[in-house]
Amino acid sequence: MTTEDRSKPHETATRLAHGGRRPREQHGFVNPPVYHGSTVTFPDVDTMLSGRQRYVYGRRGNPTSDGLESLVAELEGAAGAVLAPSGLAAVSVALLSCLTSGDHLLMTDTVYQPTRHFCDKVLTRFGIETTYYDPTVGAGIAALFRPETKAVFTEAPGSQTFEMQDIPAIAGVAAAHGATVLMDNTWATPLFFRPLDHGVDLSIQAGTKYFVGHSDVMLGTVAASPRAWPALKAMHGDLGQCIGPDDAFLALRGMRTLEVRLARHQASALAVADWLAGRPEVARVLHPARPDDPGHAIWKRDFSGSSGLFGFITRPAPLGAVKAMLDGLELFGLGYSWGGFESLAIVADPRKYRTATTWTEPGHLIRLNIGLEDPRDLIADLADGLDRFTAFAEPG
After folding, report:
1. Annotation says 354 is catalytic
2. Single pTM value for the model
3. In the β-sheet with 104-108, what is the strand arrangement from edge to edge?
4. CATH topology of domain 12-255
5. What is the mean pLDDT of the chain?
6. Residue 184 is among the residues annotated as catalytic for this protein
7. Residue 243 CB partners (closer than 8 Å, separation 6+)
8. Interval 123-145 mean pLDDT
């Protein structure tokens, strides 16, 4: 914590309310002030040359960004955390902190698509090779290691299709090979899963989603184990990454309510998912917290909760039926982000970019972000949408 007394451990809700702020250093104001500025002055030449002043230049941090970094590091149980201007920027700085020319990266095949693009279009320019692997491989990932394998990237559940990964098993194999383990943990946040407690070295968040929670800030965070922290901190500085003070302030404000928001997202998403599972238009629901999900056992073993993002597969039908369903929704926006207060929907096709696995579902994949609306209203909206789906698929 960053308040006055660290002597006693506190529960998560208390840490969210008190972490990252020092009222006694800010004239008693409970929130860190927003520091706008690039230039920082020094009292004398000796101080300037010593490098020991806490703040030296705006890009290197200020009390506002320090508050957010401190809170993230505490929630993650990390040696330190850095802030980036987006989730993808966080992924990029994390990967570049542990890879160099000639290295080999193992990347889950279900990863967030822009991360795949970064590997295929940017890392290749630096002579770094990526091998995509089946997310369900578990300890079998050992067969994919090479002498030059330096990092393993995980994401659980997987983007769009929600496969669970056995993170402790993968991390154990990576540790035996001296490789760095990275995890995109945006879905669960450190409230429902703390990657560093399970052998991960770099825990990544698209803070744009649940940390901010209000769809009004772009943010990425990376929290590091003691082993990975020096390289991450150095690479973050070398790349000149930073975020604006207003974004840091809004993220801190959002995180004060993270636990209560996630509880609502979780309950509402499960209610909607359970309802969808009973609809004849739905072939399968993709939600690891449901007992019939293939990844449920791993989720139940390692995770303490689930968030508001999940998917479902329709029964086979023309694409026009999906358009009729989604275009007419009143409470669900059509948008690629998630984690905000508003509900969203997208249609996705994993066959376009998977390389190590094959997506064979004959129906259409729909991903839903369940926001903070009343789930009864969301269910009614989806019911009307599924009726339109059926009317289009079975005219007359």
Report:
1. no
2. 0.93
3. 80-84, 220-224, 202-205, 180-184, 149-155, 104-108, 129-133
4. Aspartate Aminotransferase; domain 2 (3.40.640)
5. 94
6. yes
7. 65, 83, 84, 85, 219
8. 98
